[in-house]
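the two lines:
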Amino acid sequence: EVPLVESGGGLVQPGGSLTLSCTVSGFIFSASTIHWVRQAPGKGLEWVGRIRGEANSYATAYGASVKGRFTISRDDSKTTAYLQMKSLKTDDTAVYYCTRASGYYQASAWFDPWGQGTLVTVSS
Amino acid sequence: QSVLTQPPSVSGAPGQRVTITCTGSRSNIGADYDVNWYQQLPGTAPKVLIYGNNNRPSGVPDRFSGSKSGASASLAITGLQAEDEADYYCQSFDSRLSAWVFGGGTKVTVL
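prediction for all of em together
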């Protein structure tokens, strides 16, 4: 069983929108902080953002390159996190992974486990 | 350009020892934030290899070890094996950016 499964990727035109889903099983979703990390083709990993659980008021944080364009949300009843992407640019083309923050202190968190990723292609 | 700096590639013969460095600054590794390491095999998602600077998750061979000193960290692979060919990434937190940050990645080649 795969603990995290991303879905919703595909081809979108520049300026368009897309929403990715990350469905979780096998661990307590409601208490978990979920991060999104992306990887452009042939490039390294880039942190996108994160959402904390209800105990921390579902606080969100975003990387500079996506702030103001991307929104992370969650539905604990569906054990699913979402990444809503707007005003997409060609530079947003990447495989998008969701992952759980592990460890007690959020700043020192490591990411484990990871989903298999979903590819988003922004092109005309 | 990544906040954490890694060499693009390292290589070694089977059985040898290789080291990957990860250089940060006073706002991340130098601020005493933990460093974590990930292994990404071709076509797969990253997997945590070392967490909290020098801890191995269960199932990770003890050939892999991590260390940290000042604003830098290192991942060492001893007894290099063909299956270790992969990309390796360091990761930490940056207080100036208020963001989790990754190194640019290092490709390990087994000669």
